[in-house]
Amino acid sequence: MLTFNLLVAVALGYVALLFLVAFMAERRAARGRDGWLRSPLIYTLSLSIYCTAWTFYGAVGYAARSGLEFLVIYLGPTLVLVGWWAILRKLVRVGRAQRITSVADLISSRFGKSNTLGVIVTLIAVIATTPYIALQLQSVTLSVRVFAEGAWSTAELEATAFWVAAGLALFTILFGTRNLDVNERHHGVVMAIAVEAVVKLFALLAVGIFVVWSVADGPADVMAKIDASPLSSWEIGAGRWAGLIFLSAAAFICLPRMFHVLVVENADERHLATAGWAFPLYLGAMSLFVVPIAVVGLEVMPVGANPDLFVLTLPLALEAEGLALLSFLGGLSSATSMVIVASIALSIMVSNHIVMPIWLSAGSGGATMSGDVRRIVILSRRFAIAGVLALGWLYFRLSGAGTSLAAIGLISFVGIAQVLPSLLGGLYWRGATRIGAGAGLIVGFAIWAYTLFVPALAGGSNLVVLGPAGIGWLRPQELFGFEGMDPVLHAVLWSMLLNTLAFFVGSVLTFPTPLERLQGAQVVHVFDHTTGPRGWRHGVPEVEDLLIMAQRILGAAEAQALFQAEAERQGSTGYLPEVTPEFLDHFERELAGSVGAATAHAMVGQMIGGTAVSVEDLIAVADETAQMMEYSSRLEAQSAELTRTARQLRDANEKLTALSIQKDAFLSQVSHELRTPMTSIRSFSELMRDGAAGPEEQARFAGIIQDEAVRLTRLLDDILDLSVMENGQVSLNISTGNLADLIDRAIAATGLGPEDLRIVRDREAERAVTLETDLDRLSQVFINVISNAGKYCDAEAPELRIEVRGGAVDLIDNGSGIPKDSRRVIFEKFSRLSDQSAAGGAGLGLAICREIMEKLGGSISYLPGQGGAAFRIGLPERRALAAQ
Amino acid sequence: MTVQRPGIFLAKASYRQRRMRDAARMLPVIGAALLLLPMAWSGPAEGAAQRTSVAGLYLFAVWIGLVAAAALLARPLQRPDVMPEDREAPVDEG
User: What does the DSSP 8-state code read for residue A3?
Assistant: First the structure.
């Protein structure tokens, strides 16, 4: 005989194994080798938390009582998964795009990040899930009792539930709140669930095969037994059949734990394609042997045996003890995996939608006040997990083990299904509003509580039998005189009908807030634009404050990585990117992963201290027009760019034309410039040759000839210089010197006296600049600019200011400056502006200067807006060393 | 003619993909219709002895059918969008 102590040992060993599996999975994931952990197979198996102890034990009991009706609980989810393309795909996409952390977060996020809705859904979820957790505890207690007959006292059995709850709380806290992952993914938990999924399927199949081929004589015999059993008197009640299929489908989407594994833990949208057929297959396998076990159980077991426990008691009665043990582990798996995920999902909701908002509003400074938000979040999750389990345990203790498993499960289903209208409405209908969703949720939940929850708690009371204050048509189970209806169906009908009606009417009659419309567009059209909502435009918070806040929530390393990545994307280095609307958006979504959308929005809102939505956003929200306007604004942007390009082209063309005219002028210029001195040289030398002049005259003529020859040489030097420069065949003679000395030399070289040009300098500042470059070339530039000032400055008392500005020197005179039109061409060849040829230049000076500065690695440019002609000479980089 | 093949094929591929997606949307509807069918069956008055096992077999058969259909659709549905606008291949002019 299987001893009770052995059972306890095996159970504990199994739990230890689960801890180990979870631990190993976390380790693997931490090392980044989570590829295998994130396969479609694991995803499919993790969905199996749908099959709770209710399924494992309760389905057989359900079948024994109501025949094939137990199947409806699986047929609804089968339809949902087979049709994954229609609903789940969108749900998962929205979940990923908006970083949804729970079903409450989805509703809150969709309806303008309304935290009120988040709170309502959280409360519904907690209230509806509590009986369900109680159900799991009850099933574990019942199964232990089967083995403990005589070994433990009743009090000790009562304690089992407590210890199971405590153990589950420990496991969930350990692996569910181990870290605050932005994606809310829990590798360890998911892996443990997957193992449990395999165990429970294996256990149920083993019992089924044992029953069909060992107890009965194969399938044909079982068929015969089925038709001979009391089950065959079962009749499909049309309303219940359709109603319950709908209900289970709704619950499959809305149950917090299902939403968690379906959407939040989903790593890859494509896993849905596999789960779409594999999970229905799993469900089929789970239910394949339910009817045979029920039929054979009814036949073999004594009258009055609890059919809910046939899976366990049948092998025991037939002395297949190993099988009974396996079956016990299967039941334990079913119960624990459901409780673990449900409490994680609820703890996320409670901490994100109830604890954090309260904490944030309590601390007036909000996220900027000292203290670690991250720690608070984790702490609140741990308390929430413990609290949820404590509630389940209390419910179990208070309600007693009276109600059958299936009945409790259905009550929970109807409660949580109240989220469906808002969820689907929000997903597919842009007109759905916050008020409508709130109204639907509250109306539906109130009707559920009144027609199903209250009667379940207070079955025979006057309220239920006679109606409140004796008003007959308000009797909870026969609302508005609908007598004789199945209580569950009655509740489903009224709650869903009025819920949907309230949701619809509320939505139609109210106006959404801008943020709601924005989120509505984002969610409904998630496939068109998967970029985040553009919520932030006004008010730019100091990026450092954001970083400080992010570090508190996400943890230092993660926050810094996030900011650094963004900075890098913007093309800067360091940890502080520009605060762009896109970045705020992205940042808010990252935060939402940790604390929920509404809280994250509130936090960022506090930081930027402004309104969330701007006029531009409203335009973007306004749907079709928005898209058209976005399109047209894109067109406008494009056409503006085209105009800009065209203008640039036109500028370039003008410049080219001007240059080409200059080039044409080049030859005539050169010949003209050469001709003038040549002409005088020729005529004076002719005069000298003819001997027409006296000796004094001759000396004067020779002087003129020499001057003209010098002028010629200078011109040819210039042209040569320029062509050498332009061809890049210039060798630099690098030496070190002082800017003050260099300017001294340049001024001396121009030969300008103070009466020609008064020069204002700050020799101290100049002395501080040490140059390491080709000093001769550089001084050539200064000579040129200074002598230009001397030549062209048209003021009464010409004056030139030389100012040192960092790595540049500005030379500014007090003349009338250079006309705007001419500024572009002064650095071109032969661009002498006025025809003061008396000044003796060929218009090559500035062109040479520009070439020199380019060669030296510096620059020269005209500085507009200084009163007179002003040039800025950018000293060669790394050659302008500031001497300390 | 052979050169023009890819153009035709491309349009065909995107067309097929859209129809596969239609099928994916219809699958739950068809499934629901088939699963609700037992409601129309007459009560236990005539040949009730047969009903439960037959109904069970029928439901499981539908179930397996849905699983198979979903499994067949899974692969085509996972493919990324085939762009019908992609007119890189030569257009059929004949």
Answer: -
Q: Is A862 helix (H, G, I), strand (E, B) or coil?
A: strand
Cβ distance A82 to B67 less than 8 Å, yes or no, reads: yes
SS3 (DSSP) at A772:
strand
Q: Do B52 and A234 touch (CB under 8 A)?
A: yes
DSSP A27-80: HHHHTT--TTTTSHHHHHHHGGGGS-HIIIIIHHHHHHHHGGGGGHHHHHHHHH
β-strand partners of A184? none
Residue type, A521: A
Report pLDDT digits (tens) over A292-320. Answer: 888 888 888 777 777 888 888 888 888 77
* Interchain CB distance below 8 Å, A82 and B43: no
A179's CB contacts (< 8 A; 6+ apart) are none
User: Is A834's pLDDT higher than 60?
Assistant: no
Q: Cβ of B24 and A83 within 8 Å?
A: yes
Sign of CA dihedral A730, A736, A742, A745: negative
What single string gives the DSSP state of each residue in A670-695?
HHHHHHHHHHHHHHHHHHHHHT-S-H
Query: Sign (positive/negative) of CA torsion A285, A289, A294, A295?
Result: positive
| Number of neighbours of residue A117 by Cβ within 10 angstroms | 27
Tell me how far apart the alpha carbons of residues A37 and A23 are, in angstroms, rounded to a whole number. Answer: 13
Asked if B59's CB is within 8 angstroms of A276's CB, the reply is: no
Length of chain B: 94
B23-82 residues touching A, CB cutoff 8 A: 24-25, 27-29, 31-32, 35-36, 38-39, 41, 43-44, 48-53, 55-56, 59-60, 63-64, 66-71, 73-75, 77-78
Domains of chain A: 4-403 (1.10.4160), 628-726 (1.10.287.130), 735-882 (3.30.565.10)
* Single-letter residue type at A884: Q
CB-side neighbour CA atoms (13 Å) of A406? 23
Locate A105 and state its tokens: 């977060």
Strands A880-882 and A769-773: antiparallel
Contacts of A184 (CB under 8 A, 6+ apart): A101, A260, A264, A265, A348, A593
Q: Residues A603, A113: contact at Cβ < 8 Å?
A: no
Q: Which amino acid is at A847?
A: A
Q: Is the separation of the CB atoms in A73 and A244 below 8 Å?
A: yes
Cβ contacts of A519 within 8 Å, gap of 6 or more: A98, A109, A110, A111, A112, A113, A533
Label residue A440 by pLDDT band (50, 70, 90).
very high
CA A108, distance to chain mean position in Å, is 17
For chain A, what is the radius of gyration of the CA atoms? 44
What is the residue extent of each domain of chain B?
12-39+49-79
Angle between helices A487-509 and A434-448 (to 10 degrees): 160
Range name among A305-314, A346-355, A473-482, A620-629 with the lowest pLDDT average? A620-629
**Calpha distance A332→A195 (Å, rounded):** 12
Residues in chain A: 884
Interface test with B, best of A236, A269, A289 (most B CBs within 10 A): A236
Does pTM surpass 0.80? Answer: no
Yes or no, beta carbons of B74 and A274 under 8 Å apart: yes
φ/ψ of A217, rounded to 5, equals -100, 60
Distance CA A162, CA A126 (A): 19
Rounded CA-CA distance A362/A354 in Å is 12
DSSP A761: E
Q: What is the model's pLDDT at position A276?
A: 87
Q: Residue A281: its chain B contacts at CB < 8 A?
A: 67
Q: How many whole angstroms separate alpha carbon B25 and alpha carbon A704? A: 102
Count Cβ atoms below 10 Å from residue A171 Cβ, excluding itself: 22
